[in-house]
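Record type: monomer structure entry
Structure origin: computed from sequence
Chain ID: A
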Amino acid sequence: MNLGRKRNRFIIPLNSMSDVAFLLLIFIMLVSLINYRREVKIEYPEAETAKKTSAEKNLEIWVDREGALYLDGLPSELNAIQNGIIDTYQTAPDTRIHIIADRDTPFEYVNRVLELLQMLQYRVVSFVVKN
C-alpha cells in the first residue's frame, strides 16, 4: 500500500496568455494617448503681412504700460474682463479677441490676460501689432 502524499502540480494555462498580452497592450496604448500632450517648440518669425479681420466681431483688450486693463476702451478689472469674455462667447462664439498692448508693456501684464484666456479655453485670439 502506497501511503505517500500525492503531489498536485499547478499548471498555468498558456492558451489565453496571448489574449491577455494583447489586451494589456491595448490598455497601455489607450492610457498613453489620454495623457499625451502635443507641444511644438519653435522660434516664431516676425509677421511680414497682417491679416485683417472684421471690426464688428472683435473684442478688444487693451493693456497699457502700468498694467491697467481696458475692455473695448473702458477701464476694467480682470474679473470684469472675464465676465465680458463669457458674455461675448455666449452671444457670438466666433468673436475674435484682440490683445493690444503698448510696446513698453512688461510681459507679466499681458500674461495675466493670456492666463485668463487659457483658463476660459478661448482659442480665437489675436495680438495686434503695428504694420
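Annotation 1: The CA atoms of residues 62 and 74 lie 9 Å apart.
Annotation 2: Residues 37-46 have pLDDT under 50 and may be disordered.
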